[in-house]
């Protein structure tokens, strides 16, 4: 056997050994994509040349910037970054497209099962998203996307995770708020939709988590959602969260009738900052079992946005996706649904116009 052949075989053998090592170390996503290990950092690094959006605070029932100017959010919610990765859409260009819609904030849902299954999730996804949104000069909400009872772990939409819900939630926010402590444009939404839980118990848990974030030293806005799958923040009137710079969130869909809006969140907005972190509708002939989403611009969208505008309440529409409902895109991820066209039009209208 010639030396050339021997060298070739050695190189080939080393290549396969390296490939095997990579496959052993790497994780495989649900659709078969390889998730290579990512370098971990202690803290998010602020790029000196980037002019990040200023940290926000609350004053009365408004969200204000460093100049004392009130900020009204209009934003978009894409799918979990792990899904974007599987769709080959986890890249700066995708977030550029969201910025081009006119959105001034993006809500990022972090599904607990994806967080648990990928030990690199913080650095693989959230680090880059915070970097990209900073470069785009827009705000970003990190949404811990649980739906159910934080204390018992019960709920029809709860993921199958061995770690108790409350324990995992606390560890998540200890890690994430510390990591992004110096990122001024990040907002922390501590728990997506509390459900099957009393107002008193949720208030106790929300105060505990907010306290953990504040004791770590993170001063960014903390978003606290309502009970009954996020819609009801009426309890805030008697028992507001005791920490500063708190924004209360409500989720309102077509099934939530107009005569309930003042009770669920409108009255609270007179005294405290309120943000609708989920809303939307399905107005096309779609095969859906989520009947609470069925509506249209005339019988829901226009009336709802008028209600918000009269009270200076910002909003975030979901989903900037072609599958998750209510979906802004059709199957090809290019064509817009009727709802998507409506949202695009509303995002082009600047705040306070």
Write the layout of secondary structure elements.
Layout: H1 3-25, E1 27-28, E2 34-35, E3 57-59, E4 62-64, E5 74-78, H2 81-86, H3 92-100, E6 105-110, H4 112-117, H5 121-135, E7 139-144, E8 147-148, H6 165-179, E9 186-189, E10 193-194, H7 199-216, E11 222-225, E12 246-252, H8 261-266, E13 274-279, H9 297-310, E14 314-320, H10 338-348
Parallel strand pairs: 5-6, 5-14, 6-7, 7-9, 8-10, 9-11, 11-12, 12-13, 13-14
Antiparallel strand pairs: 1-2, 3-4
Description of the structure:
By secondary structure, this protein is α/β, with parallel strands linked by helices. The chain folds into 2 domains: 1-37, no CATH class; 44-348, TIM Barrel (Alpha-Beta Barrel), CATH 3.20.20.80. 35% of the residues lie in helices and 17% in strands. It is built from 10 helices and 14 strands. It has helices spanning 3-25, 81-86, 92-100, 112-117, 121-135, 165-179, 199-216, 261-266, 297-310, 338-348, and strands at 27-28, 34-35, 57-59, 62-64, 74-78, 105-110, 139-144, 147-148, 186-189, 193-194, 222-225, 246-252, 274-279, 314-320. The strands form 4 sheets. Strands 5-6-7-9-11-12-13-14 form an 8-stranded parallel β-barrel. Strands 1-2 form a two-stranded antiparallel sheet. A two-stranded antiparallel sheet has the order 3-4. A hairpin with a 5-residue loop joins strand 1 and strand 2 (34-35). Helix 6 runs parallel beside helix 7.
